[in-house]
Write a structure and sequence with these properties.
Elements (H helix, E strand, L loop, with lengths): L1 H22 L5 E5 L6 H17 L3 E5 L6 H8 L7 E5 L1 H10 L11 E16 L8 H10 L5 E4 L5 H13 L4 E4 L3 H10 L4 E5 H9 L4 E5 L25 E9 L4 H15 L2 H9 L3 E2 L4 H22 L5
Parallel strand pairs: 1-2, 1-3, 5-6, 5-7
Antiparallel strand pairs: 3-9, 4-7, 4-8, 4-9, 4-10
Helix pairs in contact: 1-9, 2-9, 4-11, 6-11
């Protein structure tokens, strides 16, 4: 009798995760965007939320929890219940770069979050206000060298890929600029378009519409190749800085302890969506390359990015001060 009870309990425990995955979701899901509305994380988060809503049959609601370079929203998800109902649209800043920048980061990206899927890989664009007296990257480098620290550049915040991509550029091009950090790409872009700050390295997801609308001027992109969205804009390497390549990336993560069956279901749903012509076209329109793979693939990317950006932080001397 006791043996029968043990067998029944064992079978129940073994079956429970798959049952949860089959019934999941039974209520609305929150997708946390750790940056303000209007930036690339928020734009891609809303695109994935719309896709998940259609595929899962439950509302996926984007909630912006901003501050501290994205760490506030990321920490919120890291400390949430691992049931699949709180997701994060993650970015390199809070998931990789901040490991080197913060002395006491309140979470461990590799231990406190469950990677689900990488969604996109996005080069940055070197942009200036239309009134700025440079039309090429070589001209920008020349004017910056003529007045070290005489010009400012905007970024979406301390420790973000946008910030550290400029720090890497400064080192490799031998120029100096003064950093003006903002709380997200949206507010930074507004000031660049308004002429308050003349220079910015920003995600293609955010800036392509403004480039085409002549509200900012594109000088170069930071990827390995030119973008179909901006075919006349050279890469930074082509434009005069040999070896310079950077890109941002975005992906969905769940809270620690989320059952692997639910993580697997979310991965499968999003992978199918990312393979559809409609979503591929929409992401391409934003200047991004759709990317997907397994949760372990995404975890491997995060681990390698932590190592890469730690070297950039060390070399550049970038700080949060």
């Amino acid at each position: 009798m006791i043996m029968r009870i043990v067998v029944v309990v064992f079978l129940a425990l073994a079956i429970a995760p798959s049952v949860r995955a089959q019934s999941y979701p039974v209520k609305p899901i929150r997708m946390i965007s750790p940056f303000p509305a209007g930036g690339p994380t928020d734009i891609l988060g809303r695109l994935m939320a719309q896709t998940l809503t259609q595929s899962l049959g439950q509302p996926v609601i984007v909630e912006n929890r901003v501050g501290a370079g994205g760490t506030i929203g990321t920490d919120f998800v890291a400390k949430s219940t691992g049931d699949g109902y709180t997701l994060l649209l993650g970015a390199p800043g809070p998931l990789a770069i901040d490991v080197s920048l913060f002395k006491n980061l309140p979470y461990d990206p590799l231990k406190d979050l469950e990677p689900v899927i990488q969604v996109a890989s996005v080069p940055l664009v070197v942009i200036v206000h239309p009134s700025f007296p440079t039309k090429t990257l070589k001209e920008l480098i020349a004017i910056l060298k003529s007045r070290p620290d005489g010009y400012t550049f905007a970024s979406s915040g301390n420790g973000t890929p946008q910030h550290l991509s400029v720090e890497l550029f400064k080192t490799m091009a031998g120029v100096a600029m003064v950093h003006v950090p903002y709380k997200g790409s949206g507010p930074a872009l507004i000031d660049v378009m308004g002429g308050q700050v003349p220079i910015m390295f920003e995600s293609m997801v955010s800036v392509v519409p403004h480039i085409k609308g002549a509200r900012v001027r594109a000088l170069a992109i930071t990827g390995q190749r030119r973008s179909p969205q901006l075919p006349d804009v050279p890469t930074v390497e082509e434009a005069g800085v040999p070896g310079y390549v950077t890109a941002s990336w975005y992906g969905v993560l769940a809270s620690k302890g989320t059952p692997s069956s639910i993580v697997g279901k979310l991965n499968a749903v999003m992978a199918r969506a990312l393979d559809t012509p409609q979503l591929k076209e929409r992401i391409a329109e934003l200047g991004s390359d759709p990317v997907h793979g397994s949760p372990e693939d995404f975890r491997t990317l995060i681990r390698s990015e932590i190592e890469k950006w730690s070297q950039v932080v060390k070399t550049s001397g970038a700080t949060l001060d």
